[in-house]
Amino acid sequence: MHLVRYLSPVDGRPIPGVRTGDTVASLAGINTFAELLQLSLEDLRAAVGKVGEGEPAEGLKFLPPLDGRGEVWCAGVTYERSRGARMEESTEQSVYDKVYSADRPELFQKAPAWRVVVDGEPVGIRSDSGHDVPEPELAVVANSHGQIVGFTVCNDMSSRSIEGVNPLYVPQAKLFAGGCALASGIRPAWEVSDPKNLGIRLVIERDGAEVFSDTTSTAKLVRELQDLIDVLFLPNDFPDGVILATGTGIVPELDFALAEGDVITITIDEVGTLTNTVAVGREPFAFLATDNLEGIR
């Protein structure tokens, strides 16, 4: 079962629903994903349990599972591999070594809801970067009360060349058109047996051939998921919910960089799969602003 957001085949409005296998059922009385993530975990689970008969998922247009004032945030340097990769690329290595073991995690805002791309849409790399990689991450979905209600797949696209020059350039290395992708479905928290023991796999294809692949596990994540959410909520309100990507344990070696047309596939056990094709620059993502204005995202 996955919580999804899609265009209603009746009137074209974005609505929340529940996908089970090849069918999708709408959530009665809940008109937006923001409303869904305003519910307590108990009430959300009850609402999901009341869905009726579904319709075929084939032909439906699925949207990012976030809307309204929803935001995507990220945690950084939460895996030993990430610490090592950041130190390899950076002129200021000590900051990454320190944050890995510090009490306070690195947290940064990645994208508001309207800037997020979804499975099947392009992901972006900056035209002024030159060395970019995907970062496959388990994303924690929290409601407005700070409760973990589900999990999804995030690709936290990153410019290694920009961040490597100076850690203060992290916002430019992380926040750009097409830089944040989410799977179309959220797996409810009550259906994931152990989120700290999930396999993660990344595959990158170029011209139909595999050019990179690797695996890791959330068992290597050094932070506790609820602790990350608690730190995020301590100074902030998230009235329409928030999705927090929890860091990556897979980083290609320095001799690998993404290219236009590469196909990136991320799979997380029990959670889902996310596939996107790389595009360069901001122009391929003009549709995000247009769709938002027209009310179809």
TrEMBL record:
Keywords: Metal-binding. GO terms for biological process: small molecule metabolic process. One of its GO terms (molecular function) is metal ion binding. InterPro entries: FAH, Fumarylacetoacetase-like_C, Fumarylacetoacetase_C_sf. Residues 72-278 form the Fumarylacetoacetase-like C-terminal domain. The keyword rRNA-binding does not apply. The keyword Metal-binding applies. Belongs to the FAH family. This is 2-dehydro-3-deoxy-D-arabinonate dehydratase. It comes from Kribbella rubisoli.
